[in-house]
Amino acid sequence: MRGFRTDLAMECITEENVHIEGVQVNTHQIGDIKHTRIRIDSESAAEALKRKCGQYITVEYPDLPRYDTEKKKLLVKLIAQAVRTLLPEEGDILVVGLGNRNVTADALGTRVVERLLVTRHLRQAMADELRTKLRGVSAIAPGVLGLTGIETAELARGLVAHVKPAAVIAIDALAAFESERICTTIQITDTGIEPGSGVGNHRLGLTAETLGVRVIAVGVPMVVYASTIARDAMARLINEYGLFEPGHEEATEQLLRQVSEGFLGDMVVTPREIDELVLNVADLLSDGINQALQPAIDTDTLHTYMH
Amino acid sequence: MRGFRTDLAMECITEENVHIEGVQVNTHQIGDIKHTRIRIDSESAAEALKRKCGQYITVEYPDLPRYDTEKKKLLVKLIAQAVRTLLPEEGDILVVGLGNRNVTADALGTRVVERLLVTRHLRQAMADELRTKLRGVSAIAPGVLGLTGIETAELARGLVAHVKPAAVIAIDALAAFESERICTTIQITDTGIEPGSGVGNHRLGLTAETLGVRVIAVGVPMVVYASTIARDAMARLINEYGLFEPGHEEATEQLLRQVSEGFLGDMVVTPREIDELVLNVADLLSDGINQALQPAIDTDTLHTYMH
Amino acid sequence: MRGFRTDLAMECITEENVHIEGVQVNTHQIGDIKHTRIRIDSESAAEALKRKCGQYITVEYPDLPRYDTEKKKLLVKLIAQAVRTLLPEEGDILVVGLGNRNVTADALGTRVVERLLVTRHLRQAMADELRTKLRGVSAIAPGVLGLTGIETAELARGLVAHVKPAAVIAIDALAAFESERICTTIQITDTGIEPGSGVGNHRLGLTAETLGVRVIAVGVPMVVYASTIARDAMARLINEYGLFEPGHEEATEQLLRQVSEGFLGDMVVTPREIDELVLNVADLLSDGINQALQPAIDTDTLHTYMH
Amino acid sequence: MRGFRTDLAMECITEENVHIEGVQVNTHQIGDIKHTRIRIDSESAAEALKRKCGQYITVEYPDLPRYDTEKKKLLVKLIAQAVRTLLPEEGDILVVGLGNRNVTADALGTRVVERLLVTRHLRQAMADELRTKLRGVSAIAPGVLGLTGIETAELARGLVAHVKPAAVIAIDALAAFESERICTTIQITDTGIEPGSGVGNHRLGLTAETLGVRVIAVGVPMVVYASTIARDAMARLINEYGLFEPGHEEATEQLLRQVSEGFLGDMVVTPREIDELVLNVADLLSDGINQALQPAIDTDTLHTYMH
User: What Å distances lie between residue C109 and C115, C193, C281, CA to CA?
Assistant: First the structure.
């Protein structure tokens, strides 16, 4: 059953491959929030799972974009912890929001960057005491290749050379395999962003190899490809009727290919209320990242600074 | 194969029911634009097709939201003609944009209303000669029930009582069965808008019965329900393997129901670039409706008035 | 020094007219927030102050649109108290947001309405116990005459006839005389909205006379007319040099008129960051109005309902 | 009468300084459009006018933001000609939109960049014949220092080093001295953008010195500072009464300073309908710049490419 597209490492872990050497999966439940840490250590495991070596932390909560005040605090804390675990302890951070602000399902990166506490330009003017408490943060959401003529990765490389951050945080809208994951699962990883991933399908990745510094990627699925939904529906039927028995295999595979490559093209599946959900998720992520970057400042004070 | 949802009359016409008494379908091709006029005359035909008696005009063009200047002129002319055919020859017109401006796929009605030439308030101040040339037009996009607490149909009824138009034009984003129809098919009908139709699923319809005046509905599909895509994919497989043979029927139907009622919920399928497509389609519709309402004024002059 | 335009009653009170019979002014200070209640009781006082008889409550805080969490709570409470004082104790409420959502300085009404907890359509489905706790609220921001062809007051009258609220709350962006008042002063009054007031200059007022029910108006200055600034600058100079001495009066008045009617036209003065300030003020007002309308529900729960 | 702020070279030319050596002013009228070319050749002239040496072309039309179709064509042609005169004949171009997209009066640069035909990424895939006809264009609107932590000039320098354009076009909202100039005067200059200019007051300039390539700046006034309006009103009065006579000078100057530095702060004067005007002006500028950059392609075809 190949051909399903997902940017979530956790959707690549199955009952069969979870026990491969070089893969560690630790899950624990915090009330109705599920916290998973996947570590891929060996190249052979990476190849089997089709994911890069590194750490993948996911925070799942079915009602994530409809959080109440208390749940929000907890989710923000979990996001902040995950980001902080993967960040270098010191040094400036450059945040890059990927995606197209004019395409609702692809605008997550832009919306998060708009809500960040940016401090790099303030630090020169600060008293020494405050400056040591405040991490230097710069942030940009440059827009997609089709609108700028410049790959986001090229642009980020230029900025890294100039701003010289200790690490980059890249934020992007993801595609998932299961529609239940849309706006309910947050993935934080130190493997960066791969070429061809994200809703907008980046040509070049943002990784330690392309940028020369560690890249923490933070993402949330915003779509499932329509062809994935169609293939999944067919797969359920095929399992039910055992259509992959000898003789049927070839014809079935052809039908599946026809569906996924054919009439559904680049169509995506989203919740109808995606416009609102993106904003709610962006609020969570930005609060979490702000808290990770400025642990010495409480959230209320952060909000006051941002006016 | 029940359970597919569509707001397009043309998707209810099949090889089997096209020859029912009381249904007339006239199609002609204008270059690569397809123009269809469906007339449902008898109650039995209406019941068989699950559509109200009346006229349904569709204009189809596969590249509709990416028109060039020349094609735009032609499309606008066809929309204007269709609207004019269904409108009363004289009297003020009230245009109601349905849907939620904050939900991209549901914002078509709002976007069209924003681009209309509104004249009702200007006519008192005009010279007699100009006033006879200008039709009185008022327009409102009140927002959905969840945001106002008032059904759009209730609100429209109150306005009709006050403004006393000769007819209402209602504009809405539709749902289709086939994903190829998204942003490529325009439906113009004198049957109004049915309860439960549109992307936003109106509870009350806007029809001659509820409003007391003729209601012309103009709509374009913006989504296909994800469950429709899944059912369609399964149906292709079922046809291929003859799974509806005796004995399989019950189980298959159950699987289909599971897919469409189950995990996909209210998920919708749209093109990734839906945000831009909605604006392009709104431009076409508003130009067409403006031209239908003010035939004595050419489009350039219309645009100048609208500043 | 005639010719200054203001929608704030408090700017009409001067050292000379504060002691007129029929005017009561009570001011008290709550930390750095100033709370004023003006009551105009007699027609002669109304005429002298050029304001209608009724109550005018103002809440002033110089850093209003840059509130921190604690100050926000206090401001919201004061707004809620003022609105509740003027509202009837029982019955449904219709909220009308005035102004043009496409004009930043005139969009306050729209932005507040977007953030209200609307309940009218929910109450039928509720358990009796909850329904008694929840006031029925409907809300609309219909857009300005130039975009709809219908006066907001006409439209509101139609809605009042249909929805039958116990009172209307009308929200609008105001014009002030002093630029320091922009986004720092909230006025809440039971006199409704007068014709010609607001940034958008309504032709018809929304008052108990036009709507048939009590109208509470809530507004915040968003602009000062440029001609007011120019006149004020000139007035300072004139005072300094005593130019209103006999002989100069006529010429000076002519110069003032030239400035205010002439080259500055409809230009307005706003802070550069008005786009952000409008949203912050809308947040405050909507929280305050929501709390006034639903005193049985705390703010966090309100926010949860609104998703 | 010092202290008026303007970004327009033409507002620095007075009857007294127009005949200074090193200044050439050529004006001609095209119907109701006024076209002015100012050339400042000597350092002494530059100092007297407080403008850099170089060329300044202005296109003035009182109804500029309310153009009809025919006038638009002419204005676009004049803008295109002016830009082409100042551009190098060959080589890629990088367009930088300055300002803050979230501040209406400061969003012009962003709005223009959104409407540009970006080609740099397309040229590799093109047939040789088309490639020679198409100039390579990249474009970015990075956002202001307060939101990114990075000066636009720093960022542009990094991009120039990477993209290696033959020239930069920088687009910005300007401040004028006379309110009649808002949205009616277009300035195109080869002197770049100075520190402290623009509505957003850039700290670092974008000039040949800072970027290492020629910088063409295109700008339109969007605001007048409120203090300028106040000073101007006072100045008219002072002229009328001869208040600058001996003895008065000091006191008057003090009053003027008080007005401009004091209570009006950063307040700006704009037309009420600025939101719409910015979009109309952005349409004109982007059409003009697109035509200047791609003279081999007609405007309709350009629009088709941009979908």
Answer: 10, 12, 11
Residue type present at position C242: G
Segment C241-299, tens digit of pLDDT: 766 666 666 777 777 777 666 667 778 999 988 999 999 999 999 999 999 999 988 76
Average pLDDT over chain A, rounded to an integer: 88
Compute the average pLDDT of residues D230-241: 77
pTM of the predicted model, to two decimals? 0.91
CA atoms of B5 and B224, how far apart (whole Å):
8
Chain A neighbours, 3+ Cβ pairs < 8 A = B, C, D
The residue-averaged pLDDT of C181-210 equals 90
Contact residues on chain A for D122, CB-CB shorter than 8 A: 149
Q: Are A108 and A278 in contact (CB under 8 A)?
A: yes
**DSSP one-letter code for C105:** G
Provide the residue ranges of all domains of chain A, joining segments of one domain with +: 9-304
Query: Which chains does C contact via 3+ CB–CB distances below 8 A?
Result: A, B, D
Within 10 A of A240 (CB to CB), how many other CB atoms are there? 14
- Whether C304 sits inside 8 A of A280 (CB atoms) is no
CA distances from C166 to B91, C95, C207, C208, C291 (A): 35, 11, 13, 11, 17
CB A211 within 8 A of CB A156: yes
Mean of pLDDT values over D233-253: 71
CA atoms within 13 A on the CB side of C37: 12
CATH of domain B9-304: 3.40.50.1450
Measured from the Cβ of residue A125, the count of other Cβ atoms closer than 10 Å reads: 8
Contact B68 D304 (CB under 8 A): yes
SS3 D182: coil
pLDDT(C1) > 50: no
Q: D1 vs C7, C236, D18, D41, D244, CA distance in Å?
A: 34, 18, 18, 26, 10
| For residues B59-88, average pLDDT | 93
Residues of D in contact with C268 (CB under 8 A): 269-272
Q: Give D273-305 pLDDT, tens digit per residue.
A: 899 999 999 999 999 999 999 998 876 777 666
**Contact predicate A187/A8, CB 8 Å:** yes
Q: What is the DSSP letter of B193?
A: B
| φ/ψ (deg, to 5) at B93 | -125, 135
Residue C108: its pLDDT value, please?
A: 97
Q: Tell me the C-alpha distance between B84 and B79, whole Å.
A: 9
Collect all residues from B whose CB is shorter than 8 A from any CB in A. 102-106, 179-180, 182, 199, 223-224, 226, 229-234, 236-238, 240-241, 243, 248, 251-252, 255, 259, 263-276
pLDDT for res C146: 85
| Count of positions (residues) in chain A | 307
Q: In this predicted model, what pLDDT tens digit does every residue of D102-157 receive, in sequence order? A: 999 999 999 999 999 999 988 777 777 777 788 999 999 999 888 899 999 999 99
Task: Flag if C114 and B147 touch (Cβ within 8 Å).
Answer: yes
Spatial CA neighbour of A285 closest among A114, A134, A33: A114
pLDDT at D113: 97
Distance CA B221, CA C107 (A): 31
Phi, psi at A139, each rounded to 5°: -155, 140
Read out DSSP for B255-280? HHHHHHHTTTTT-EEE-TTHHHHHHH
pLDDT digits (tens, 9 = 90+) for C150-170: 999 999 999 999 899 999 999
Cβ distance A171 to A179 under 8 Å?
no
Distances D280 to A243, B89, D100, D272, D275 between C-alpha atoms, Å: 60, 35, 18, 15, 9
Tell me which long-range contacts D118-122 makes (C-beta under 8 A, separation of at least 24).
Answer: D118/A146, D118/A147, D118/A148, D118/A149, D119/A149, D119/D294, D120/A149, D120/A150, D120/D92, D120/D163, D121/A145, D121/A146, D121/A149, D121/A150, D121/A151, D122/A149
Per-residue pLDDT tens digits for C98-123: 999 999 999 999 999 999 999 998 87
